[in-house]
Amino acid sequence: MNILNNGRFGIPAACTGSMRWCIQKTIEHVTERSQFGKKLKEFGNVQEQLTDMITRHYATESITYMLAANMDKGVLDYQLEAAIGKIMASVSVIIIIL
Fold first, then answer.
1. In this predicted model, what pLDDT tens digit does every residue of 35-83 receive, in sequence order?
2. Acyl-CoA dehydrogenase/oxidase C-terminal domain location, by residue (predicted)?
3. Which of 54, 67, 71, 89 is 20 to 30 A (C-alpha) from 78?
């Protein structure tokens, strides 16, 4: 079971990096691009979407750090956290990328 938990840890770690890259590219795009005489970053719905992206990234990154800390401490029972991290990261990265 420990092998599965280690694998489950890798998914949120990888997804966190992908999310960070997408957020950086999104920020670059909305800062440079104009529509209807305004920068995209000035539109409320764009700000709301970016906030959602950053919140999802923060939550995924936090659970990844928590999992890493548990593994470093030698905690043997972190199955639930690993499973939650895997699911949360998988769903969040799809939402952010799309």
1. 999 999 999 999 999 999 999 999 999 999 999 999 889 888 888 888 9
2. 1-91
3. 54
Mean pLDDT of the chain: 92
Torsion (CA) 33, 35, 38, 39 in degrees, nearest 10? -20
Cα 62 to Cα 19: distance, rounded to the nearest angstrom:
13
Look at phi and psi of residue 74 and say left if phi exceeds 0, alpha if psi is from -120 to 50, else beta: left
pLDDT in tens, 76-98: 888 888 899 999 999 999 999 98
Return the CATH number at 60.
1.20.140.10
Instruction: Burial-class residue 8 by CB neighbours within 10 Å (0-12, 13-18, 19+).
Output: buried
Domain containing 52 equals 2-97
